[in-house]
Design the sequence.
DNA sequence: ATTACCCGTGCC
DNA sequence: GGCACGGGTAAT
């Protein structure tokens, strides 16, 4: 059994996620609810968020203690709430982006990019302890470097297990304090493998490094293989390089490493600022997820029938984008719209209206029409105005809400039965299309609920529309 | 006395 | 054996 040499032994930990089995749904829910609450005093914010959490499916019977744990732990670990110096709480930038764009891959990239030990997600006394030990460690950056190095040295795909990450990286001061070169860490891992050395794989021991590897997977930085190891995604070069090239740490801890003694008070002064820090300078251009790639991956992982479907979807989207003279796009909205246009063209063709199919167009942004696509009912030439709402995540999700701008809601109000929401959910397990006709009408007949917030937040149910087979 | 990460423990 | 409830415990 391998153990870290006594003098180098340390234990890094962070909050347990509480939502592992339901991570993406819980997160989207939390982010949306936090944004709905808006800026409030600490007390008001806490009590409103607590109510929201209690309303999440399955939470009705849980103890208040547990719900408060959700409230504080999920928000601090992931930085969903920011604090002002005059005692207010407000939705963080990450929460806003997640709630509006629903790009979970991007969200986890933001998280992984800033996450470090110590950090404001820990209690100040833990941070104090880690700073006194000299710990200064960004796990995602280090693991990515190590995996790349591993590929280079072994000349094949190198995978890292949770136990190896725990005992050779997280719990070793030579790494988390002394910034030991990844090659050296690799030597140790390979030596242990060669000698068949075992590790303590107890759940509570390896869970912290394991959590980080899981978050990296949700960020589409690594993939998990059935042999229990995580492998780097070599097709995400640009994103991965930005992690590796970054040398930033939470600046307010920096001066504390040089002091003879650091007081708890020193740390406490930095707590609020941590949440500002993790929410600033988010690289939205680089980190947003590449839909084509997620679909490509879906293609590799699903069964034969679905695979054929996704393959033809990919081909069609590419063709469509070539016709439009566009280079490969990363925009969620763009790909969502391409899929919706294809769907419409085929639907109309199936109704023997090729003439109308040819006239399906995307409206240029500058029109600000309040919808994305001009299409037709098909039986008649009545217009069908379509707003596409796309969600993307690694795993299939089950979330039933989206945001509409004032413009979009206004258009829905004006065009009534001619206005459609096409709700597309893209994940590595495929694509889902849910169609909601006349959202304002549905709202008036209580088939969906609406809350105003920079436009409106819509929560829908199976009764609000119909799940359609996506035509491609 | 209350709050909020910490983490033991029991459930699936 | 992974996961999360809710009590533990130190900070406020």
Sequence:
């Amino acid at each position: 059994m391998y153990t870290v040499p006594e003098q180098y032994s340390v234990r890094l930990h962070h909050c347990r996620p509480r939502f592992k089995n339901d991570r993406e749904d819980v997160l989207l829910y939390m982010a949306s609810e936090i944004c709905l609450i808006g800026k409030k005093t600490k007390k008001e914010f806490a009590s409103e968020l607590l109510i929201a959490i209690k309303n999440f499916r399955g939470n009705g019977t849980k103890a208040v203690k547990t719900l408060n744990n959700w409230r504080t732990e999920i928000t601090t670990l992931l930085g969903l709430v920011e604090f002002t110096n005059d005692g207010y709480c407000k939705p963080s930038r990450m929460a806003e982006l997640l709630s509006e764009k629903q790009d979970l891959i991007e969200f986890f990239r933001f998280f992984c990019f800033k996450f470090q030990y110590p950090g404001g997600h820990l209690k100040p006394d833990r941070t104090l302890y880690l700073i006194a030990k000299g710990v200064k460690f960004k796990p995602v950056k280090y693991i990515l470097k190590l995996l790349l190095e591993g590929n280079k040295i072994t000349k094949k795909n190198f995978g890292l297990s949770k136990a190896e990450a725990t005992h050779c990286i997280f719990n070793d001061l030579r790494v988390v304090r002394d910034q030991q070169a990844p090659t050296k860490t690799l030597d140790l891992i390979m030596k242990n493998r060669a000698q068949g050395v075992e590790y303590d794989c107890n759940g509570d021991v390896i869970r912290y490094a394991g959590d980080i590897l899981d978050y990296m997977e949700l960020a589409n930085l690594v993939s998990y293989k059935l042999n229990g190891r995580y492998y780097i995604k070599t097709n995400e070069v640009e994103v991965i390089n930005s992690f590796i090239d970054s040398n930033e740490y939470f600046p307010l801890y920096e001066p504390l490493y040089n002091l003879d003694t650091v007081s708890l008070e020193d740390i406490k002064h930095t707590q609020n600022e941590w949440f500002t820090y993790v929410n600033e300078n988010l690289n939205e251009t680089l980190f947003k997820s590449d839909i084509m790639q997620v679909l490509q991956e879906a293609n590799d992982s699903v069964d034969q029938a679905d695979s054929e479907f996704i393959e033809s979807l990919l081909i069609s989207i590419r063709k469509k984008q070539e016709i439009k003279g566009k280079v490969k796009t990363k925009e969620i909205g763009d790909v969502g719209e391409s899929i919706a246009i294809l769907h419409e063209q085929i639907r109309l063709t199936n109704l023997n209206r090729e003439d109308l199919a040819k006239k399906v167009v995307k409206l240029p942004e500058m029109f600000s029409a309040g919808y994305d696509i001009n299409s037709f009912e098909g039986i008649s030439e009545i217009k069908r105005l379509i707003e596409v709402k796309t969600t993307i995540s690694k795993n299939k999700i089950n979330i039933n809400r989206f945001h509409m701008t004032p413009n979009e809601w206004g258009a829905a109000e004006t065009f009534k039965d001619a206005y459609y929401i096409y709700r597309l959910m893209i994940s590595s397990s495929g694509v889902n299309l849910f169609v909601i006709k006349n959202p304002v009408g549905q709202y008036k007949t209580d088939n969906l609920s609406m809350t105003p917030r920079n436009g409106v937040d819509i929560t829908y149910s199976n009764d609000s529309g119909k799940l359609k087979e996506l035509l491609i």
Summary: Chain A has a mean pLDDT of 90. Residues 291-468 of chain A form a domain with the Trna Endonuclease; Chain: A, domain 1 fold (CATH 3.40.1350). DSSP finds 21 helices and 15 strands in chain A. The first strand of chain A starts at residue 40 and ends at 41.
